[in-house]
Amino acid sequence: MLQAAMLKVIQEAGEGVLVLIEGVAAEEFQRSRLTRQEVRRLLNLMAGTLLALPCTTRQALPEIDWGSWQALQHGLASPALDADELAWDAARGLVPPTLTWLRVYRRSEPALFEFRP
């Protein structure tokens, strides 16, 4: 049950990222402090929640790029790296395939996504 709630958080955060960057060019993203902050917040939420999933759940979702999510989490927390550039790259290159795989897994492994009392 907890994993279903976590997967929902991941999906909703990812959809939020995609809404925020829809039709936005990299230069616009760099100029919009509020958009950058919110995208980074949602990416941190996604990464933290993904990486906090139980090991058995992570194993059931092998196509998720776990290494990239872990690297993103560390990168966004590092003052030595450009968090805005990392966020832009992740929003465009990591979020869409993650959401796609979650949709695939929802069909093939529906029990992972079910809320049970």
Briefly summarize what is shown.
This protein is mostly helical.
Rounded mean pLDDT is 95
Task: List the uncertain runs.
Answer: none
Q: Please summarize the sheet with the most strands.
A: none
Number of helices: 7
Defining key terms:
mainly alpha, globular, 7 helices, 117 residues
Write the topology of this structure.
Elements: H1 2-21, H2 26-31, H3 33-52, H4 55-60, H5 66-77, H6 83-93, H7 95-108
Helix pairs in contact: 1-3, 1-7, 3-5, 3-6, 5-6
How would you describe this protein?
It is a single chain. Helix 1 packs antiparallel against helix 3 (33-52), helix 1 runs antiparallel to helix 7 (95-108) and helix 3 packs across helix 5. The N and C termini lie close together (8 Å). It contains 7 helices and no strands. It has one domain (2-110). The protein is globular, with a radius of gyration of 14 Å. The longest helix is centred in the N-terminal third of the chain and has 20 residues, at 2-21. It is mostly helical and 117 residues long. The chain has helices at residues 2-21, 26-31, 33-52, 55-60, 66-77, 83-93, 95-108.
